């Protein structure tokens, strides 16, 4: 048992409060991690703002990395001392989807209950009442106990914040391009919304050898960053005139229009733009997550007649144990400049301020750094 600091919301729709909690030792199949870094992803904001309802009280954060300090029964002791990225969808390894290799669709993940595999939490308040952990890892904490299958050791030389970013934004964005959509070399690619996830789509498109990479955003500073990461063309979106934005996207995408359009915002209006920008045979890849209950629409006849496709991409089709080390090696080789996503490092106490910047579309990736 140890005392830890963590950012807790009482339930979805309420501000975070920094609390001191008690953390029990890891049980069988669990791992004790001293957290080093945790990125602020828009999915945390969806929970914080009540767009998605989650049980509470719950420790925020799902894009994190740390050092393994101890392991529970049955876990390889060689993990102790390793630096690791954490997967927010710890696979059960037993269900049908895990067995067919699609761990991002696991139906038995402890992440679904925001607790450990036995359904209980290792975190309690001073009065003994339990506190859950978002997606079973709740990375906005100084220490955590997480499921063994969430822990992916990193190769030597990978900084903590790079490992944290591999845990969500990078795997989601790069994986949407190279795994879900399998973009071929030379393709024309558009990315609508270049925050942490969309910028990772841009990096993935460059890694895949895309011919054109068109970045689209409302914020010109984001377009500059996208160009630094490999975007060849930029489109400043017109918030009031979607048709104008679609025309600009098609013009920038070159003859034949875009082969792939990635939507990395989660807004029905920009999902419609992604589909409207497609030429016959084109593919829209939906990466952004909407509020619950929202619908997006498109004109059906030309969609079918033109043989267009829509793909949903969850976690960039990540098999964390295989893909996280690959992304880390690509970083070490200079082919995924992940550290350039970072535009701010902050303390846990400044998390609400970080949410304000993210809500305003001003942030790329802000990293909570957990002091040793
Ligand atoms: N599919 C998955 O597995 C998965 C995983 C992680 C995050 N997500 C989702 O991806 C989305 C993006 O996450 P993020 O952390 O990159 O968010 P972010 O807030 O950092 O980025 C969103 C970007 O979209 C831009 N934008 C907003 N409205 C726009 C508009 N109308 N036109 C053009 N640009 C616009 C903003 O300026 C910003 O740069 C969120 O919905 C998040 O929940 C999905
Ligand atoms: Zn995320
Ligand atoms: Zn499973």
Describe this structure in words.
This protein is of the alpha/beta class and 372 residues long. Helices cover 27% and strands 24% of the residues. β14 (260-263), α8 (268-276) and β15 (283-286) form a beta-alpha-beta unit. The model has no long low-confidence stretch (mean pLDDT 97). The strands form three sheets. Strands 3, 5, 6, 9, 10, 17 and 18 form a seven-stranded mixed β-sheet that branches. It has a six-stranded parallel β-sheet with strand order 13-12-11-14-15-16, sandwiched between helices. It has a five-stranded mixed β-barrel with strand order 1-2-7-8-4. Residues 41, 43, 62-63, 168 line the site of one zinc ion.
Question: What is the strand and helix layout of this fold?
Answer:
Blueprint: E1 2-9, E2 17-23, E3 30-39, H1 42-48, E4 58-59, E5 64-71, E6 83-86, H2 96-99, E7 123-124, E8 130-133, E9 143-147, E10 151-153, H3 160-166, H4 169-180, E11 188-192, H5 196-207, E12 212-217, H6 220-228, E13 233-236, H7 242-253, E14 260-263, H8 268-276, E15 283-286, H9 300-305, E16 309-312, H10 320-332, E17 342-346, H11 351-359, E18 365-369
Parallel strand pairs: 4-8, 11-12, 11-14, 12-13, 14-15, 15-16, 17-18
Antiparallel strand pairs: 1-2, 1-4, 2-7, 3-5, 3-9, 3-18, 5-6, 6-10, 7-8
Helix pairs in contact: 4-5, 7-8
Nicotinamide-adenine-dinucleotide (NAD) binds next to helix 1, helix 5 and strand 12.
